[in-house]
Amino acid sequence: MDSIRSWWERYSFQTAVVTAGIGLAWVIRQTQGVAIMETYQFLSRPFQSSVSKQELLQDAQVRELRYRLTELESQNQQMKELLKVRVTPTEAGVWTTVIGRGADSWWNQILIDRGSSDGIKAGAVAVAPGGLVGRVTHVSPHSSQILLISDPNSQIGVVVSRSRYTGMLKGQSQNTAILEFFERDPDVKVGDIVHTSQFSTLFPENVPVGRIKSINLDKQPSPEAIVEFSTPLGLLEYVKVYPFQEKL
């Protein structure tokens, strides 16, 4: 008996701690922690913020309105920039929104939300902030497909604005294109501006296309330059479409 009393006096505290731990674990398992959470919430309630659910919802609505306003301001700025783009056709253009673009054809074509019911026809020219975008190739009553100038099948007659040397611009599925000059020794410099030429059959003349990024005058069979498009074709959201009759 004395040995039991001696053992209890020596290990009573440790035994109580272990028993309490086992009991607490059992309670947590049976209640899935609800009791502990309720106790915590009761003890911490005096220190919690008094913000109501209604106030949180109002804050969320204010944030949403702020985000919408920011987007509207961005769209308004894009529209203002579109108004600055000058093209040769005198007929009024049609504002359109880009509604479709495939990941595997990102640099090849886009789908817009206007079609034949809006007066759009195949061959129409599309522009955006910066200059030329492409031309309409297929039309349905309420949508149209535009072949981008970055598509490898796109070939455009262009001219270097400063020196008036001409060449053929070919897309390469990115925001740059290859310009093959017709002359053997063209007067061209990095930074020169490139426009559509009067010899282009698919586009009106003097529409901005891009800027010379690099030059290779030793390229065979003709000198070449890399042209960076002035329009960010990878970020298109709106384009303006002008009617254009293909030159014969």
UniProtKB/TrEMBL annotation:
Entry protein name: Cell shape-determining protein MreC
Protein family (similarity comment): Belongs to the MreC family.
UniProt superkingdom: Bacteria
Domain Rod shape-determining protein MreC beta-barrel core: 98-242
A single cellular component GO annotation: plasma membrane
Biological processes per GO annotation: regulation of cell shape
Cited InterPro entries: Cell/Rod_1, Cell/Rod_MreC_2, MreC, MreC_beta-barrel_core
Record organism: Pseudanabaena frigida
Keyword Protein biosynthesis attributed: no
Keywords from the named record: Cell shape
UniProt keyword annotation of Transcription regulation present: no
